[in-house]
Write a structure and sequence with these properties.
The chain has 150 residues and is mainly α. Helices cover 81% and strands 0% of the residues.
Length: 150
């Protein structure tokens, strides 16, 4: 397996980056849809349109992109010579990716279901604040991977 990972390292890395970009695009766009949806009247045509957009975004882009990002990321993690597990940066990066982005992904899924059932309890302002979380996590992760400060 390690020979395969070494031989295909550049492709795996490229596919990981593509999947992460798609995942992040969705993670940035879905809370923005929630901002507008929170202000739409329940049962209105606009609200129903947001429901369709949110469901399609989550199911067609965000979920598959997250799964692929994690699969390719784990392949990179176990490619010989790529990561030194004694370095602190990798553990912080994994925490930010799996707990931070993965946890936010779960919450976005939960909020989407609440909107779909017309049971949203959060304000547009709440979702505006939530919309900043993926950006902050992305900045931290990119710095950790590129600079490897620890």
């Amino acid at each position: 397996m390690s020979n395969f990972l070494l031989e295909w390292y550049d492709w795996i890395k490229a596919l990981h980056i593509i999947a992460v970009i798609a995942w992040m695009a969705g993670m940035l766009y879905l809370p923005r849809l929630f901002v507008y949806h929170a202000d739409a009247a329940v049962g209105s045509e606009l609200s129903e349109t947001f429901k369709v957009m949110e469901r399609r975004l989550l199911r067609a882009i965000i979920n598959p992109a997250m799964i692929l990002a994690m699969i390719f990321g784990l392949c990179l993690l176990f490619t010989p010579g790529v990561v030194d597990f004694d370095d602190s940066w990798i553990w912080i990066k994994l925490f930010c990716a799996f707990v931070g982005l993965g946890g936010l992904h779960a919450w976005l899924s939960r909020w989407r279901k609440a909107f779909a059932a017309d049971r949203n309890i959060n304000t547009a302002g709440f979702y505006r604040k939530i919309n900043e979380i993926p950006t902050v996590l992305m900045i931290i992760i990119v710095i950790l991977v590129i600079v490897r400060p620890f």
